[in-house]
Amino acid sequence: MNRLAGKAALVTGAGRGIGAAIALAFAREGAAVVLAELDLDTAQRTAARIEAELGAGARVLAVQTDVTQPASVQHAVSEGARAFGGLDILVNNAGINVFCDPLTMTDADWRRCFAVDLDGVWNGCRAVLPGMVERGAGSIVNIASTHAFKIIPGCFPYPVAKHGVIGLTRALGIEYAPRNVRVNAIAPGYIETQLTHDWWNEQPDPAAAQQATLDLQPMKRIGRPEEVAMTAVFLASDEAPFINASCITVDGGRSALYHD
After folding, report:
1. Which residues, 6+ apart, have CB-to-CB distance to 33 below 8 Å?
2. How far apart are CA 233 and CA 29, in angstroms?
3. Cis omega (within 30 of 0) for bond into 157
4. Are residues 92 and 164 in contact, defined by beta-carbon separation less than 8 angstroms?
5. Within 10 Å of residue 138's Cβ, how many Cβ atoms?
6. Strand order in the sheet with 8-12
7. What CA–CA distance (Å, rounded) separates 161 from 148?
8. Dihedral of the CA atoms 257, 240, 169, 124 (nearest 10)?
């Protein structure tokens, strides 16, 4: 299990959910991992879990990071470079759900969504690209969403930001392809994270909301964070050298279904 041996990766939002699963999967595959997370306590717990599993071979660093602040992201990148000698991989995973009615949404809601879900991705890319271009190699993986090409009523403006993530992925992938820097995205569908459970629990009947979600899925279950993580491993590894400016959907086939 050394598909990422000798590489160093930075994962944003790595304290829990999909980000934590990606950080653990990368470490298992031999990568040094920077856990860039707003909630440092969760990042440190994930780092401790990685160290407990991998022992002395683990190379992991938790850095408090606010992806909405370019200086904070640059600090995380600099700390990773100082600890591990440069970054080969970036996973822009940090994100938040902002679901509003378009005509009652506040300006603050709009900016909060875009500050994390789109600006945060650009801040990460902008911080690592100079080093990757200089070395002539690198892989960036942006965690988008099936909201990037499928619309669910009541979820505005989240899909607008995620559409932007796909555009950013494609534009940067083409821009830096001649320098051997690949930029790809993953579009997860329903994944069993704390955010998903939080949404179910906000509904009048959480059990019914959960069952309704499961009934919508062709596989009659939702995805697991580690299933997204292994897709990220593939895109970040040398097994995907000709995949660029692309998006892999991880949703059990839900987005291919024409109607229920």
Report:
1. 8, 9, 10, 11, 14, 23, 26, 27, 50, 59, 60, 61
2. 8
3. yes
4. no
5. 24
6. 60-64, 32-37, 8-12, 89-92, 138-143, 181-188, 247-250
7. 8
8. 120
Predicted confidence (pLDDT) per residue in 65-102, tens digit: 999 999 999 999 999 999 999 999 999 999 999 999 99
Taking the domains of the chain in order of start, what are their residue ranges?
8-192+224-251
Q: How many CA atoms lie within 13 A of 122 on its CB side?
A: 15
Strand, coil or helix: what is 252?
coil
Active site residue 190: no
Question: Helix or strand or coil: residue 10?
Answer: strand
In CATH terms, 8-192+224-251 corresponds, of 3.40.309.10, 3.90.226.10, 3.40.50.720, 3.40.50.300, to 3.40.50.720
Six token digits for residue 102: 């378009």
Confidence tier at 52 by pLDDT (50, 70, 90): very high
Q: Report the predicted TM-score, pTM, of the whole model to 2 decimal places.
A: 0.96
Q: Which one of the listed residues 158, 176, 190, 258 is annotated catalytic?
A: 158
| Residue 72 tokens, joined | 């904070």
Q: How far is CA 213 from the centre of its chain?
A: 22
> Among all chains, which residue has been given the structure tokens 């505005």?
156
pLDDT at position 221:
97
Cα–Cα distance, 182 to 248 (Å, whole number): 14
- Taking Cα atoms as reference points, which of 220, 219, 218, 239 lies closest to residue 230? 239
Angle at which helices 119-135 and 107-117 cross, to 10°:
20
Q: Measured between alpha carbons, how far is residue 70 from residues 67, 123, 160, 218 in Å? A: 7, 5, 22, 40
